[in-house]
Amino acid sequence: MGSHGGADQAQSVTTAKDQRYDRADAQLILLMRGLRSLAYGMLAVILGVSLSTEGFSPVSIGILITVSLAGDMVGTYVIGIAADGWGRRRALALLALLMAGTGVIFGLTNFYALLLVAAFFGTLGITASETAPFLPIDQAMIAQITKPEHRTALFARYNLVASFSVAVGALSAGLPGFLALLGLPLAIGMRLMFGIYALLALIVAGLSLLLSPHVEAPRSALVQVKGAWQRLVPPLGPSRGIIMGLAGLFCVDALAGGLVVQSLMVLFFHLRFGISLVWLSALFFGANLLSALSFLAAVPLARRFGLLNTMVFTHLPSNVLLILVAFAPTFPLAAAILLLRQGLSQMDVPTRQAYTMAMVAPEERTAAASVTSLARSVGSSTSPVFAGLLLQGPMLALGLPFIFAGILKSAYDLTLWFIFRRVRMKDE
């Protein structure tokens, strides 16, 4: 009996130790996401304006963004098939170093061919919603270190931290404008921001190595790959059909989102209304702040109405508002509509992530997150170049990227609900 009591005590101590590791790992994951998002929020505002100031056309900027998203797509694919084997911590560090290299190159040169190479192989902040290959690793780690009943809440915190950080980054993007008032050339101020972007990435690389081994994929639970060709695809198991269906729909949503990535929205307001960088940074600070606050509503709504219903029925009204931005005749009205839209548009993000993780077994999580992230990368990487074309010349006044994006996103929401409303989750 004494031996049995000693075993129980030892197990209790081990459990408490594991919980401490899990809390510390969760805090590190949130901190790294916050630092990355701070960098992305800053660059998403200045990138289009910076490149336009250097003489690049909207089409050239759209091509650069498309190439960057295509690089994210390839990176996400590689992460999906190799991250668990390499080690999740090591993969995060490598991605952060590539992100730092991108900031250095964009800060030192405006040679277009070199910028294209850096955008493809590195990580470029072009939107408030992170598209880089960091995400599937983060999602798999979060799902591993939390219980199902707490997962949506942690995903909400994860995205809340990201949105607040993006908002602060967007606000800090106005710094070159203020420095210009003090006599520092605007171009130099914007290059300084690329240096800060690189520095933040280096800090993330160091923090990723502080995570505990608990975040790594359990070796005993890895999906067994039998054929050589299977090594070239993320190792999904019984949930393959469901995940591929979700991936196809997420691809459509991301295709629509690629038309209105934040860098292109900033460029639209800058070219159509002649708005300065200082005012644009203030606008997107507010937009991202409202997105952050919307995450707080996602958890109670998901508990009351379910993950899928929350994803769909908070997203549909935001799509209508996105379309209305195109018809606003003045900057204040367009900005007000955009801010209202941002208060609704991001509630589907933590619920979508929790929903995807709930649909698969634990050993499929990295692969499932990678496949769905890859699908989103495929969709988003194809559309910015078309958005650039639609923002050229007289078409700029029509705001067509906003109209097309709103229509596509509405079609995605309705299709998702009709197909998956009766599909049961693994955690149920």
Can you put this structure into words, describing what you see?
The chain has 428 residues and is an all-alpha fold. 77% of the residues lie in helices and 0% in strands. It has helices at residues 2-53, 58-86, 88-108, 112-121, 134-145, 148-172, 175-181, 186-208, 240-258, 262-273, 277-305, 307-325, 331-345, 348-358, 365-382, 384-390, 400-420. Helix 1 (2-53) runs antiparallel to helix 11. The protein is globular, with a radius of gyration of 22 Å. Mean pLDDT is 84; it is low at 7-14.
> Counting H and I runs of at least 4 residues, what is the number of helices?
17
Strand content: under 5%
Q: What is the percent of helical residues? A: over 70%
Q: How large is the radius of gyration?
A: 22 Å
Unreliable stretches:
7-14
Layout of helices and strands:
Elements: H1 2-53, H2 58-86, H3 88-108, H4 112-121, H5 134-145, H6 148-172, H7 175-181, H8 186-208, H9 240-258, H10 262-273, H11 277-305, H12 307-325, H13 331-345, H14 348-358, H15 365-382, H16 384-390, H17 400-420
